[in-house]
Amino acid sequence: MLAAPGALGGCRSRAAQPKLAPAPAESARQPAPTGQTAERWGEAAGLRYLEVVLDAADSEQPLPMVVIFHGRGDSAHREWIEGWQLRARFVFPQAPLPFSGGYSWFTYVVGESDDAEVARGMQPAVEQVAKAIAELVKTRPTRGKPIAAGFSQGGHLCFALALRHPETIAFSLPVAGSLPAPLWPSAPQPGVRYPPIRALHGDRDRTVPFDYTENMVRTLSRAGFDIELRRFPGEAHSIPPDMRQAMFELVKNAL
Q1: What is the C-alpha radius of gyration for the chain, rounded to an integer number of angstroms?
Q2: Contact indicator for 178, 156 with CB cutoff of 8 Å
Q3: DSSP one-letter code for 105
Q4: Number of separate domains in the chain
Q5: CATH number of the domain bearing residue 75
Q6: CA 191, 169, 200 angle in degrees (round to 5)?
Q7: Which of 33, 79, 196, 205 lies at a 20 to 30 A Cα distance from 188?
Q8: Which residues contact 23 (CB under 8 A, 6 or more apart)?
Q9: pLDDT digits 0-9 by tens, 28-69
Q10: What is the pTM of this model?
Q11: Rounded to whole angstroms, how far apart are CA atoms 92 and 155?
């Protein structure tokens, strides 16, 4: 998000990101979907979304839901799940703000915005996606609470949903994301069940600095949140094959 040292960084467009590598075949623990893929576009809480079910026969049956948020300059697309072969309802919301041939979840000025400004910009987006998820669960046949995953700005939203709207999701998977310090809760609220957060991040990331996310995860873990960060040595702001493999395994296990 922010370009200042020690602050969050911005999110590159889809064109600047490497092509997602294929995921490995799923183990026999869960039958692979068969038949034709079902796709549809819809709208929830003012956000357009692409819905994908890998077996058309399941498309109107209750299924676990996985909501995947794209990064800044990207758009809703199904490349994330190519080769995944998981029985779930995958929902890809599209951010509302046009940006660089794609879309952005919130605005800021790279190199000029500080954490407080980014936090203010994020809050309306977080509220909107929380409302969208709540609406999706009511309007689409869903089993259990959704899983949230996302890259860069989408990763920021995953952190925020888990910590600011824990009632909306069962599991959070932020990739190359973080959260501005003004949005860090000081401690879990009594009686609130927070979803586990399992973050993935390259330690050479200069767009969303790894050190910032590492400090955030350490601080929140000490405060009592169920949060972990996996470091990918030498990786920048991208999703290399080993990180994509880790995403697949985490989503599969959470399902």
Answers
A1: 17
A2: yes
A3: S
A4: 1
A5: 3.40.50.1820
A6: 110
A7: 205
A8: 81, 82, 83, 84, 244, 245, 248
A9: 344 555 568 999 999 999 999 999 999 998 999 999 999 999
A10: 0.88
A11: 13
